[in-house]
Write the structure tokens for this entry.
Amino acid sequence: MEGDGVKFVRWGYEVRTSSEPCISAINSYYHQVMSYGRDRCVILDALDHDNNCVLANILAAHFLLSVDPFRASSCLLSAKLHLENATFYEKLVFESINYLISEERDDDVALQLHSKVLKEFPKDLVTLKRAQILCFYMGRPDLSFSLVNQVLPQNEGENYLYGMLAFPLLELGKMRDAEEAAKRGLNINEEDSWSQHALCHVLQYECRFKEAVNFMEKCSPSWSSLSSFMLTHNWWHVALCYLEGSAPNQRVLEVYDNHIWKELDKTDAHGAEVYLNAVGLLLRLYANWYLEWHLDVLTVWALAKSGKFSEAADLLKGLKERWKCFIFPKKYLRHYNRI
């Protein structure tokens, strides 16, 4: 029962804290993650209200890892110091995130620990989201689908769940099922950007480019609160549908200028997330050489990751020389210069 220093997060699971504002901030963070919102820093407010809360600290450590590693380490240490008094839910979430962000991480073990959380606490959709992202980078849509299917009975009709179901379905090539799941998600919440994104994937796969553009542009007023990645990625899909639907290149570049690059004008924009979609779009405009360059860049990365730094440096030097010699059409050159 609530009381005696225990309160409940949105999933109905116990957290050791006496602070209602701390719980409110955690719940807001959960919402931001599920909705791909741009205010995930709200988790730091939870620490202002209770800096001893294990759940608040471990979630903050995960959030801060890429933006402020020193503070992330401080949050992780605080979570460890108070772990003995944490609830069972907090301990399992701590275990899964602590291992996920460790230098010795093994992806299979990290996934097992997240699965362990979901077996005990199947309504925690943020743990499911972390697990699905891990599956994506592992190239295992089958495991991603298995996880969401595992918690589906306990989350029937839940907001954001069906976009999470749709994405592994489309990765597995089950387009009809993916479309059905995405549309169910949109019936629950028409502003669910992940369901919108999944449905666009289906329409794009089926070469229904005009339908995809009309659908996404109709959804676009709801994207202003999205993270830099999700906002520019959705517009990347719109631009790609114009490109693959044989629209003039100028229309594609209008999307680039007005909806992707323009994101950088915002004070809270995350540049790396914007550049990812900006570069990806511009490269697609040059499909004849895109694959060759893309594979070379991946080779540089693979060599560096395997410790072959000399070979990676040689290939990178060669790429730079080729870049200097590449001749761009003048009307597109300004877009590359801005990157």
Notes: The first helix runs from residue 20 to 35. The CA atoms of residues 5 and 18 lie 4 Å apart. The longest strand covers residues 6-8.
